[in-house]
Amino acid sequence: MDDLLNPLIQGDRRALSRAITLIESTRSDHRDRAVSLLATLPDRQALRIGLSGTPGVGKSTFIEAFGTMLTEAGLRVAVLAVDPSSTRSGGSILGDKTRMETLSRNPMAFIRPTPSSAQLGGVARRTREAIRLCEAAGYDVVLIETVGVGQSETLVAEMCDLFVLLLAPAGGDELQGVKRGIMEMADLILVNKADGDLLSTARRTVADYAGALRLLRKRPQDPEGFPKALPVSAATQDGLPNAWAEMQALTDWRRKNGHFDENRAQQARHWFMAELRAGLLARLDTPDARARLDQLGTAVARGDAAPAEAARQMLDWLTSTAAK
Amino acid sequence: MDDLLNPLIQGDRRALSRAITLIESTRSDHRDRAVSLLATLPDRQALRIGLSGTPGVGKSTFIEAFGTMLTEAGLRVAVLAVDPSSTRSGGSILGDKTRMETLSRNPMAFIRPTPSSAQLGGVARRTREAIRLCEAAGYDVVLIETVGVGQSETLVAEMCDLFVLLLAPAGGDELQGVKRGIMEMADLILVNKADGDLLSTARRTVADYAGALRLLRKRPQDPEGFPKALPVSAATQDGLPNAWAEMQALTDWRRKNGHFDENRAQQARHWFMAELRAGLLARLDTPDARARLDQLGTAVARGDAAPAEAARQMLDWLTSTAAK
């Protein structure tokens, strides 16, 4: 049994941190240990909430306020981030813990900054595995934050139970800026900054999104009225209890109808296939394989070998190597 | 030596047709024969021209007129189609040979309709291999037609020497409809229907596109003035000789500078890697592997096995099976 397992299950935050560092490692002995650790985790479930929103919408303030509210209700909250763009920028959306100062000092909360560099495929694996670790450590809610770039929303939607889109009060034109595909993934649209001078704009924006959501086909697994648009204010905390109540109502409904478990089962299958494909392709990533690839690739580039024939040779070589 | 090889090399069109049918087959004995045949093809080169344009722009009329002009200049012309959408629609953009009535009866030309069903990955492999077969059969120019949907342009750009975008005369607003990514792939933009009432609109459109192209960064492998926008009329054949002259000028330049061969070498490497990845993943597609996958997938879906652990088991199983 892994040394980390017991303290992790008992909710030790340092053990959780170390376990996440382990699954983030690309060293093959670390990977072996990570796979074994993941295979022995107890079957605890948190509510996995994906949260997306473009920069400037007030995502960290929202997480800070929403997370604090949940901990005050006695729930343990973990915050993870998916940021495929960090590969390029070297940046980190949660790197600066001071962004969520109150929550990061809260003993009921766990915040994990994004590592500064990762491959896109690796981001998905790492985050999914980190979610499992947080669940095993007894967290009740796992918030998975993502910046609204590229395919990160789809990635997050494929690993969470609820997908929440946080948007800013906006005019009708800006409404068009939200891609239809993203709208279709959302279970809840929260229009933030519904306070002070922006209150009436926010309310109008909520109505606009509610109208847009009605045009999308209702998902068979959801009760009447979902997906929903609601106003919230991370600053004044108005609307946060209501947003949480709606999330719970939707989750309860899906649990009762079996859709919750069905969704998780599908996601697990998907994750299994992704791991499998990655594992197969990893066979090309050994020093011997890379040398052979380079040799065959050069022959192909020179026109000395046909691509399909060279591929067949490489596959035969992999088979004979695996047999040894 | 394959029975098809000799008649194919001698330019027998029925042998070429049968060879393309062979590479399109998914039967594994056919695939083995196809790979062997491809490995023995002589090293003949045609000019590979990718041609994209949205429906209604007059693509078939253009190919008919342009292809006929080339055959009149003594060149043998093959026309292939890439239509990933045919998977869904069951349709076929070249299925109706009557679309190019003159060219399809021309002994110097060869037109291959798209098969009605195919997987996206399969479309790329098949088309690339069909190009090689056309080259071996002595064709001088291979036109690869694609409808402007999804990723088909990128796919075609990755397998041709020149990429031509055929567009209709349009107002300034419609200019915006051409995605920047597609513009950046184009070596030549041809504005069709530059005749009759549309002549002046077409000329204005050419000027608009020329302006847009100047804003894109010039590719280091190209001479001054490229990518270019030109007016053509498939109906009156005006501008076709000029378009062909520009294609030749660009090709000659790239040949002289080594960029032509460099591009082909890169494409061959890319193709090799794609074949290799497909070959690795094909190991999951045997009856035994599917049965095992199904078993593990069900365990994962039920929560009885962790995805990463199940993936490891499947990989171990594949290795032990390959060793037998």
Automatic annotation (TrEMBL), chains A, B:
Boundaries of every AAA+ ATPase domain copy: 45-190
Task: Give the EC number(s) listed in the UniProt record.
Answer: 3.6.5.-
An example Gene Ontology molecular-function term: hydrolase activity
Query: Pfam families annotated for this entry?
Result: MeaB (PF03308)
| SUPFAM superfamilies documented for this protein | P-loop containing nucleoside triphosphate hydrolases
* Source superkingdom: Bacteria
Q: Which UniProt keywords apply?
A: Hydrolase
Keyword Hydrolase annotated: yes
Matching entries from CDD domains are given as:
MMAA-like
Q: Which family does it belong to?
A: Belongs to the SIMIBI class G3E GTPase family. ArgK/MeaB subfamily.
User: What protein does this entry describe?
Assistant: Methylmalonyl Co-A mutase-associated GTPase MeaB
